[in-house]
Amino acid sequence: MTEVFRGTFMRQVLLLGIDLGLILFATIAAFLLRVNIDVSVDKVFALLPYLAFTTGISAVTLLVLGVNCTVWRYSAFSDYSRLLVATAAIVIGAVALGFGFNRLDGVPRSLPILQGLLIPTVLVGARVTRRVLRAFEERSVPVIMDAKGQVSCDTVLVVGLNRLTNLYLQAVAQFAEHRVHVAGLVAENPIYVGNLVGGKRILGSAEELSKLICELEIHGVFVNRVVVSMPLQMLSLKVRSQLNEIEKTSAISVEILTEGLGLTPIAEATNERKTFFEFDAVDHAAFKKQRYLRLRRIVERVGALGMLVLITPFLPALALLIAFDVGMPVVFWQQRPGLNGRPFKLYKFRTMIAAHDENGVRVPDEDRFSAIGRFMRYTRLDELPQLFNILNGEMSFIGPRPLLPIDQPAQTARLHVRPGLTGWAQVMGGRAISPSDKAALDVWYVHNASLAVDLKIIFHTIKMIICGERVDDAAIRGAWSDLERRKICAGSPTTKEACHAGTFARGDESEVVPELM
Fold this sequence. Notes:
- There is one protein chain.
- The chain is α/β, with parallel strands linked by helices.
- It folds into 3 domains: 2-139, no CATH class; 154-261, NAD(P)-binding Rossmann-like Domain (Rossmann fold); 279-513, no CATH class.
- It starts with a helix and ends with a strand.
- Helices cover 51% and strands 10% of the residues.
- It has a 6-stranded mixed sheet.
- It is built from 19 helices and 12 strands.
């Protein structure tokens, strides 16, 4: 296990070193372009501090974003998006540090612009090149023949146009290029007819499925499999009838990819019509506020980017302090349920030493904190990496705090909004209140989210950081009263005791579910 860890660590260090080399190459290339390759010793010495700042900021940014953990040959658009975010942080951080050091003396003012253009070009270009080379390698896979020395080939017609369709075409190209022939695609929307996806043409609309199979036979193309890349219930009744008829009256088999991959929707798998939201104690009228939440999402992303720009110059010093205090890595993550229960990785700076000492003995939690760790917890500085979660759209500045899966049932009302860096339950009680009271405050926020409430939470968050956590009994009573008024509390009709027992009504108010924590 140690060897595996060492190998993984060395690979990530190597990838980090390659990225840093590419960033320095792009920066030097930008400098040479700016000075028209008119280089002198004085210009080189003037550039050295800026190169040093660029390297330091790049190392911290790439580590925090996990760029060095990606597998280049399988890189995707999400990886390229992270590289763009990293580039912005690197350039802005290097400029800020350079300006504070010597007001960018000797550094051309247009250098950061050229740098911001060349860095993502070389980083993304290296990854795309590796993907292309990998594709050529995969094409050299030997052809698999049957016992008679013949290549067995299926002719497939793919129904559906979505990401799973694209993944299926890629899988065929990699693993079964000589054994599966994709005759074409069939889209739900006829406006895509004639277009190409993965080099395969969209032959017609799903409503014409039977007709298309007959037309292909005229041209000598005999389909023996129809692959559907979407759940059956998402297809029209006419298309489903055609698929049923094709399977009954011909030798053509119909395969549903989502079923084979275990992606059957919950409602279908359990023979229930209830949707996710119908399980929860949610007043659906409250979701008229969605327009406000969408507008707030835009403001939050801009704010997260601005804050990251401001703190980037200080991140290297903070990372070194944490590494010296509690060791590596400086950032740890935990999987938490987010919006609609979708899991995401929540990032924090480490504030505790390892859970076991060098002899493997468990260290009590109270002994794992250092003075620096306690200070970071008290001031919430350990939460700074969650700005990246906000930028990625996984969290908001304000909302219910994300809980560990063991503390969070799969379906609760508090998951109807994005989890927050701070929230109503946190500022009105924090760690001192019971899980049921915390749940009531969170559900109250889901129903009452507004600009006025959010401003109040921001004010109380600042107050909490300065003065510490305090329990607001009036806010807790108000939350329970509001849940009673909305008939979200279950048990005896409208008694406070029923609410404090931690039970909440389902959407149909006919059953009782456990407390929402």
